[in-house]
Amino acid sequence: QVQLVESGGGLVQAGGSLRLSCAASGRSFSSSAMGWFRQAPGKERQFIGRITWSGSTNYANSVKGRFTISRDNAKNTGYLEMNSLKPEDTAVYLCAVDEDGLGGYDYWGQGTQVTVSS
Question: Are the CB atoms for 33 and 56 separated by under 8 Å?
Fold first, then answer.
């Protein structure tokens, strides 16, 4: 059974940093793309960024320059490094895997809460 588990969320002051992890189990995702999303209460899910199997990344404008996505294929784990956090970054953060790299996400984690206080 394929499972994605996010961790690393928590409460941080504005300007602080957090590093989220997304651990995959059940199969290797080294040849898949991984995306990160977030959803705040009452708002639609928002794309944050994505990393391909080869390590290429792209980001939403709202996080570009502050957030960095990486992966460790040996550990079957993806990471989201978040710096210069703002209160508006408060949300549940989710990772997802796009098996064939064509843009559709096949597996989703349950999410981890990130709260940024002002």
Answer: no
Cα separation of 41 and 23, whole Å?
Answer: 25
For residue 33, which of 65, 69, 75 has the smallest C-alpha distance? Answer: 69
Question: Does residue 30 register a pLDDT over 90?
Answer: no
DSSP secondary-structure letter at 88? G
Structure confidence by residue, pLDDT tens digits, 16-26 = 999 999 999 99
What confidence score (pLDDT) does residue 23 get? 97
The gap between the terminal CA atoms of the chain, to the nearest Å, is: 40
Q: Tokens in use for 60?
A: 């939403």
pLDDT of residue 1: 79
Any idea what DSSP says for residue 117? E
